[in-house]
Fold this sequence. Notes:
The structure holds 2 protein chains of 2 kinds. Chain A has 9 helices and 10 strands. Chain A has helices spanning 46-54, 93-97, 99-103, 108-121, 137-150, 167-184, 195-201, 229-234, 236-250, and strands at 5-16, 20-31, 35-39, 61-66, 69-71, 78-81, 155-159, 187-192, 204-209, 214-219. In chain A, the strands form 2 sheets. Chain A has a 6-stranded mixed β-sheet, with helices on both faces. A 4-stranded antiparallel β-sheet of chain A has the order 2-1-4-5, with helices on one face. Chain B has a single domain (73-271), classed as MetI-like fold (Orthogonal Bundle), CATH 1.10.3720.10. Mean pLDDT of chain B is 86; it is low at 1-21. Chain B has helices spanning 3-7, 27-49, 59-71, 74-106, 108-123, 126-137, 141-165, 169-177, 182-219, 224-234, 238-266. Chain B is an all-alpha fold. The chains are: A alpha/beta, B mainly alpha.
Amino acid sequence: MQNDIAVEVRNIRKTYGGNVEALRDVSLAFPRGKLCTLLGPSGCGKTTLLKIIAGLIPANGGEVLVDGRKVNGPGPERAFVFQDFALMPWATVLRNVAFGLELRGMPPAERNDIARRHIAEVGLAGFEASYPNQLSGGMRQRVGLARALAVNADIILMDEPFSAIDEQTRRKFQEELLDLLKRLRKTVIFVTHSIEEAAYLSDQITLLSPRPGRVARTVEPGIDRSRGPDEIRRDRHYLDTVDEIWQMLKQYVD
Amino acid sequence: MTAGVSRGAPSPGAPGDARVPRPGITSSHLFWQLASFALFFGLWEIAGRWPVSAAFPPFSATFLALLHMIGDGSLGKAYLSTLQPLVIGIAICGVAGVGFGIGMGLSRTVEWLTLPIFIILQAAPMAAIIPLITYIYGIGLTSKVLAVIFLAAPVIVMNSYKGIRNTNPSLIQMCRSFQGTWRQEVVKIILPYAAALIFTGLRLGLAMGFIGVVIAELLITPTGIGDLITYHSSVADYPEMFAAISSIILIAAVSLHALERVEHRLFPAEIRGS
């Protein structure tokens, strides 16, 4: 069944500064083509785990397997979407989106073509020459998503991508993300602290307990996503999942 | 262009809005600028004629003295010799100072070795060090260049250092997540991020350089503009002395303002990293 698992983490441990234990013995599997969420209160190490999977932070123990192979750093099969967008303010939307390809040494004409396609895909056609500071938060994160899509990675790692975006824009973005993923068949690992967001988007939700972060539980909402977004938000499975997770998480909130 | 239109104009550099006149070139803005100059020179004239002090000439006498000094070539000759240590000093700082700052920002070892030197230099009262420089390097050009460097280098180095060190960590992670090499990280993320702050450092460095060169010319040996000031002061030619002082203030102010304009043109707020 190796092939059905895109990313696996085994016994991941992470300690900051010698005494702050962020993660303890975290083992998890992320199935291919699914959207999996890491959910938990702040301080549960969910972003740390995502950055360890991305290869941006070293773990103190355990291993990360991508497509069954152990990895020790960033790789072309994984692309990261940042909470604060991480766009270069001095570069246009086009250059920002093409940046992953630029780093790979792809010639400008070729990478700009690819970038334009993905800019259109995230609904930003016409903004190629704009600078990030001229865009709204939601539009900036679209640039961040387009940049991750442009390198054609199979696995997209999203670190609270919608937390810096206002509520209305977030809902719209969530719907479009589901729509986009349905077509692109990517594996997504998504970090959020929003129960509703997790329940709405995810095929699999992993709850992490705080300090030190451990896997508390894994939930599969089993929501029928063939129906429209409004239907999903009224779906019994959706509402049950939200409630179930809240009952679990309540104990961690002081 | 009416005053009403220009008052409604947004701050300069609003992107994609080329129709809107930039403040500073509208006639009403120019009027108030000229009016403030007229007021300042008018008060100066009155204070000089009152007189506040026998050594304080009115504006008109100073202005005539300035024209005279331009006319007989003494001012031009003075600036030729004053600008020499300034230009050499700032050029050295621009290359070595920015280089050091970047090195300190990128490497903990270089930071450990050199940061204390620049912090001490930044705090040291320059006038006290100048006799030491003269003692070692004599009274020639070398000492004056050093005076400029000692004053200008700390701010240039520290700005470059801070620009590099404050690079948004998220941008660095972004570059790494797309498998950027260390070289790409420096060239494509860190340097562009720091560029605006490095340029600001150069501008502030030039401001310090002006101070340094005048101190050097007054304290080491009177040459150039320092010579004009001390000479005319010693023979009680106060209009000439004030003309020389005003001219260096004017040149410093105009060149720094021009650099600031260049800075805003190169790094408008919308695309600045640091």
